[in-house]
Amino acid sequence: MTSKNMTAAATDAEQVPAPVDLPEAGEEVNIDATENYFNRELSQLQFNYRVLKQALDTTHPLINRLIFCCIFSSNMDEFFEIRVAGLREQLKYGRETVGVDGMQPDQVLAEISRIAHEYIAEQYDILNNVLIPELEKENIHFVRRRDWTEAQADWVRSYFDEEVLPVVSPIGLDPSHPFPRLVNKSLNFIVELDGKDAFGRETGMAIVPAPRSLPRLVRLPDEICEGGENLVFLSSMIHAHADKLFPGMEVKGCYQFRLTRNADLELEDDLEDLASALRGELLSRRFGDAVRLEVADNCPEELMNFLLREFGLTERDLYKVHGPVNLTRLMAVGGLVDRPDLTYSHFSPSIPRQIRSKDSMFDAIRKRPLLLLHPYENFSPVVDLLRQAAKDPHVLAIRQTLYRSGADSEIVEALADAARRGKEVTAVIELRARFSEEENLELASRLQEAGVIVVYGVVGYKTHAKMILIVRREEGRLRRYVHLGTGNYHAGNARLYTDYSFMTCDESIGDDVNKLFQQLTGMGKALKIKKLFHAPFTLHQSLISLIEREAGYGEKGRIIFKFNALTEAQVIKALYRASQAGVKIDLIIRGICCLRPGVPGLSENIRVRSIIGRFLEHTRVYYFGNRGRPQVYCSSADAMERNLLNRVETAFPVEDPALIARLREDLDTYLADNCQSWVLQPDGTYLQNHPAEGEEPVASQLVLLDRLTSSSG
């Protein structure tokens, strides 16, 4: 790839880990040397930055560009809540661990602070100087206080009095009112006051938490505006009328801030009641240790320092922002304005002919296995399979894993319906799916009430595998129908994430899945599995063995992997050895990559690219050329330690030649992308591909959308 058809995404050396001196060609390379690995956290920051850059990409509709800016905020929130919090915990308790990259936790935290400050400053620059002006040109206005007309000011006053004032609880700071314990990521205001209150107290300062029940953006009525779409921030309303919260006192200043806390949950492995313990931990999540403070940049230094002291943070943890402290809430713009011309055009996911012409999903699957790629192809066949199983008198049992599904989903309704009809229904629910724990507790209760047997998996190992097993009596014998997927059983995700769904009645796969459910719901030794790989038992070593086999083919070897993250050191080393043997390796990795490509004598045969676009790339595919006899596995697992060693995961073979060819065609489409792809360089930067002069543009997601809709429609 030449620089001619690339644009630098992060060429400034200040934005990335410091480059290292690469070995000369022919120089012996130490495969274990720390400089051959990127830091996990810093690589994740790079992914977040690529998401932010979508806000500048004019091939996306304008409102969706704003949404990318918001997604960056959401990603950064989770990054601080989990990753930064974890590093701080290591330092707090003296449990520092060093990865293959060799960086100490305090070094990583210093780099994170430096890079994150730059990225967040750029985010607000994009918002204020690019997105808001472009929205203004489209007659979508964020109306500032200074620009309110008399009619608008009157309306805001009434809204504040009727909707805001009754639910706000200002907290004066004095000996009997110590600094309040603020909820994680909540919008708050620190207020400077002058004068005495009704009891003669001179506090000088107060905290105003903004109720989470209130919208952060409010649409002004059309009759008090001069056309267009006009929005007002809740923060502007509180700023304008803060004096009403402190009658008889002078408000000298009112400044918004937001605190991010440690939101990771720690549960012991020897719990007697996981559900009860989790309910207790969820209450504490909102008040974990502070990790970041965001403050409006017009806040006086003394107030910022006061907040830092209260939260036990340092200057490194302070982010001064020029605008709302929680940009994630700007996602509401799409629902508040009626401008479909500024969002992605609607499309209808297709239904393959194989099942479109069949009344029975069972008949279609018996004829040949089925592979769907969501969201281009409809998720409804998965729901239909369960619905038909619930009603089919020949179906005896249904078993399913649930990681994220939503308590009110059609999948859950189908399982409940099957149980009410007297079928044996078992749901393995992962209560610890991050940020879905509360929803999954509700889901478990609902299914239990319907008569479903609910199991919480294996303590210490999250159940991340995506499996459905349906046992049906046919012609005097039992046949197993199986669904295996790379993504969650969540209809909403299936419209936004790319994921494969595989349905088959292959006897060996059915037997394997049955054994996996036995391991999850019962006790005993690991059972021998024929076709599937499964973590934490065989998946890790099987992947390494297949990589090593491909390395044995030398220059005739071929590996294409597509997943969300690559961090596991032994897999990286196996890929390095395969590259040294001459194997051509393409890695399509959306997010974190700790492998350093393009190092002479080590990884010059490895290319790494990230696809960022309308849909979140979520498919996991492991393709091995196997000297012209391709072996392909789809999986619920990324190449990370947690997936391969500490979770229940599956990788399932796709053996039908037509489906293998289809998967290879999909992978080649991603590899041909010269619009939405970013290529990882040896120095850690990512460069965005652009068509060279005279080259046909290829945006992989658009190509797949067109191909699958056309071929299936």
TrEMBL record:
Annotated source species: Marinobacter persicus
Post-translational modification: An intermediate of this reaction is the autophosphorylated ppk in which a phosphate is covalently linked to a histidine residue through a N-P bond.
UniProt binding sites for ATP: N75, Y497, R590, H618
Reaction it catalyzes: [phosphate](n) + ATP = [phosphate](n+1) + ADP
Polyphosphate kinase middle domain residues: 152-332
Transferase as UniProt keyword: yes
Pfam families, per the entry: PP_kinase, PP_kinase_C, PP_kinase_C_1, PP_kinase_N
Family: Belongs to the polyphosphate kinase 1 (PPK1) family.
Record EC number: 2.7.4.1
Domain Polyphosphate kinase N-terminal: 37-143
Known function: Catalyzes the reversible transfer of the terminal phosphate of ATP to form a long-chain polyphosphate (polyP).
Residues passing through the membrane, by range: none
PANTHER family attached to this UniProt entry: POLYPHOSPHATE KINASE (PTHR30218:SF0)
One Gene Ontology cellular component annotation held by this UniProt entry: polyphosphate kinase complex
Any GO BP: polyphosphate biosynthetic process
NCBIfam families the record matches: poly_P_kin (TIGR03705), PRK05443.1-1 (NF003917), PRK05443.1-2 (NF003918), PRK05443.2-2 (NF003921)
Domain Polyphosphate kinase C-terminal, residue spans: 360-524, 532-701
Cofactor section: Mg(2+)
Designated name of the protein: Polyphosphate kinase
Residues annotated as the enzyme's active site: H464
Binding site for Mg(2+): R404, R434
Single GO MF descriptor: ATP binding
Keywords: ATP-binding, Kinase, Magnesium, Metal-binding, Nucleotide-binding, Phosphoprotein, Transferase
Lineage: Bacteria, Pseudomonadati, Pseudomonadota, Gammaproteobacteria, Pseudomonadales
